[in-house]
Amino acid sequence: MTPGSVEPDNDKAAPPTRPTVRVAAPTERRNPLSVDLDLMSTRDVLTVINDADRRVPAAVAAVLDEIAATVDLAVAALRGGHRVHYFGAGTSGRLGVLDAAELAPTFNSPRDWFCAHLAGGPDAMLRAVEDAEDDDRGGAIEAAGCVRAGDLVVGLAASGRTPYVLGALAASRATGASTVLLCANPEAEAARSVDVFIGVDTGPEVVTGSTRMKAGTAQKLVLNAFSTAVMVRLGRVYSNLMIDMVATNAKLRGRMISILVEATGCSEEVSRRALGEADGDLKTALVTLVSGAEVTAARAALARSADQVRGALALLAS
Fold it and tell me: How far apart are CA 196 and CA 73, in angstroms?
């Protein structure tokens, strides 16, 4: 050894080798239309991205039957007193959290109807949590702790192979829950292991492997359509108007008046008075204005019809 050199510590353990997986999903393939992306002008980069995004609605349209089947499963679960769960990681998981979070303020749905589970927990909403998506056992444990027979579990995974998601789906099946996998890989092997498979064919991303782009957009469109259709089927929309909304600010309180005006053809003054007489309950006010019934009768009809406006109006008309 040369003077001043340090003899290597041959007894020191080498750092553990971390597992590596090469994913063969379509989202990992190179997009031939964007191979010169880093050489393009800003306008051309945006054009390539926009052109690619145009493919997404058509890809979602191709799986509407599968989305409809998922809606029917969710409606049956919720009517039976059960819940809908989203399990996802990364962008997919964050989109599940977003969808679940928006349902209560928009439709006044009970907060435990839709439960979102994100690999890595709440911290993963704002930053990547190392290796969380590779933890199939963690997904299974989380599902086993909260999913019950009769629930619906929707797995969100762009590649269709995320271990955390597949672990949760397997554990959910074991409890007797219905299972759905939503992904951007029509060839996913896990398709054979779920009740409904929604494989949206969005193809290669503009930036290879960046599933926050087309794959994420497709998942957002599917989740928007799915959860909105569930709320419609459960009677939380009258015509195309939100009638179960929570008026938590001035804009939303004004929207309640607008909804009554639109739904009934009554003046703003009459609508305000009806809402006041109903103690701010939009459904009760709507039933009174459409049927001409008193508030007490409107409330009773809603109670007898499981809080469904159409059902309450039919009762009062008979």
Answer: 10
Interatomic CA distance for residues 222 and 228, integer angstroms: 10
Catalytic residues: 102, 133
Only one residue has tokens 């179960």, namely 244
pLDDT grade, residue 18 (50/70/90)?
A: low
Burial letters for 185-207: b for 16+ Cβ neighbours within 10 Å, e otherwise?
Answer: bbebebbeebbbbbbbbbbbbbe
Q: How far apart are CA 160 and CA 152, in angstroms?
A: 18
CA distance 96 to 82: 18
Element (H, E) at 106: helix 90-107
Q: Is-contact 268 276, C-beta < 8 A?
A: no
Give 254's strand partners. none
Task: Determine the length of the chain.
Answer: 318
Residue 49 in 3-state DSSP?
helix
8 Å CB contact between 190 and 169: yes
Segment 112-153, tens digit of pLDDT: 999 999 999 998 898 887 688 889 999 999 999 999 999 999
Q: What is the pLDDT of residues 84-121, one digit of tens each?
A: 999 999 999 999 999 999 999 889 899 899 999 999 99
Residues 208, 30: contact at Cβ < 8 Å?
yes
User: Which one-letter amino acid corresponds to residue 99?
Assistant: D
